[in-house]
Amino acid sequence: MDQQTTARHQPRILAIVLAGGAGGRLGALTDHRAKPVMPVGGSFRLIDIPLSNLHHSGISDVWVMEQYQPKTINDHLRNGRPWDLDRTRGGLLVLPPFSGGAGEGFAEGNADGLLRQADSIRDFAPDLVLVLSSDHLYRLDYRDVVATHLDRGADLTLVTVDFDGDASAHGVVDVDDDGRVTDFAYKPEDPRTSIVTTEIFLYTAETLLDALEQLGDTRDDLGDYGHHLVPHLVEQGSVVEHRLHGYWRDLGTPANYLRAHLDLVDGEGLDLSDPTWPILTEPPELVPAFIGDAAVVTSSLIAPGARVHGTVRRSVVGAGATVEPGAVVEGSVLLNRVRITSGAVVRNAIVDSGAVVDGERVGDGPDAPAIVGRDGLIDD
């Protein structure tokens, strides 16, 4: 088969990145920003993860579905240039809520958001629709998911992981020996398995649109993917899994957000410096980080523009943050432009961008991390 014939048979893939949720589980950290632009690893944003995976997977038709705090997302996306999405044809398209026509108004969940964009999806006429969340940390070549989907002739392929945490916070699946999904439960109190969805979904476009139309005719709204859409397809269609064996973490709660960052500094998380699969982002216009003569820094990530004169252990210090002489930061994440003054001690905490910890002790809690918002300590 010649190359032209092969190219004609490649499926047309539309990627939709879900970036509209309010991120309420992160509390004060998302009061003034959308969750997809929460910093990761000091230098990146959460939405950089799916956009970078899309770039490296060669998928260039990308829609970003927005709703909550859209300006904070648009300020980061710009025109899509960091991910090579600033194109004349295809590339990045931002989908805000709209009025005037079918689907107008604000979505009540991610599946409901897809229903509201069904006409636009139909007009685009893709073969496959890849739907991605924007609050997870992982590396994946989506072409492998496409291969699984096509090989199995599936209506829906769920990317799954054998999860080592609380499965009840996710969609939980049963699979048979052939990888067929035989049962699905959305955030069950008593999970039957440890296999959970990673909120990476590959749909056959015709099946997705038919399901949205059928469900939309019988329900006022579809809520999230696990309420009606995925259960409907598990019952009525062919749903298979594609197992992700690498690192995956949902960063949608303070505890998971802190844990993922400690995984990074412990060398157990995603390798942010992998030259074969770099995370792409809007480059910062910042000077290099500065480490003072009296500073003590161990097992930590220090972002550009940061200045460290005190002690930082097993932590992430964000862009433009300052740790003054005599200050101690341990097991914590400082977001951009944070200032920790002399005499302050920060342990097991997340300090929001622009916040000041002025000579006080925060954190030390054994379980949930303390959150220091811009106006002071929020939760300890």
Structural notes for this entry:
This protein folds into 2 domains: 258 residues, Spore Coat Polysaccharide Biosynthesis Protein SpsA, Chain A; 90 residues, Hexapeptide repeat proteins (UDP N-Acetylglucosamine Acyltransferase, domain 1). It is 22% helix and 29% strand. The chain has 9 helices and 29 strands. The strands form 7 sheets. Strands 5-4-1-6-11-8-12 form a 7-stranded mixed β-sheet. The chain starts with a helix and ends with a strand.
In short:
This protein is an alpha/beta fold.
Topology of helices and strands:
Elements: H1 3-8, E1 13-19, E2 39-40, E3 44-45, H2 48-56, E4 61-66, H3 70-77, E5 91-95, H4 110-116, H5 118-124, E6 128-133, E7 136-138, H6 142-152, E8 156-162, E9 171-175, E10 181-186, E11 195-204, H7 205-218, H8 229-236, E12 239-243, E13 248-250, H9 254-266, E14 290-291, E15 296-298, E16 301-302, E17 307-308, E18 311-313, E19 316-317, E20 322-323, E21 328-330, E22 333-334, E23 339-340, E24 345-347, E25 349-351, E26 356-357, E27 361-363, E28 370-373, E29 376-379
Parallel strand pairs: 1-4, 1-6, 4-5, 8-12, 14-17, 15-18, 16-19, 17-20, 18-21, 19-22, 20-23, 21-24, 22-25, 23-26, 24-27, 25-28
Antiparallel strand pairs: 2-3, 6-11, 7-13, 8-11, 9-10, 28-29
GO molecular function: glucose-1-phosphate adenylyltransferase activity
Family: Belongs to the bacterial/plant glucose-1-phosphate adenylyltransferase family.
Pfam families: Hexapep_GlmU, NTP_transferase
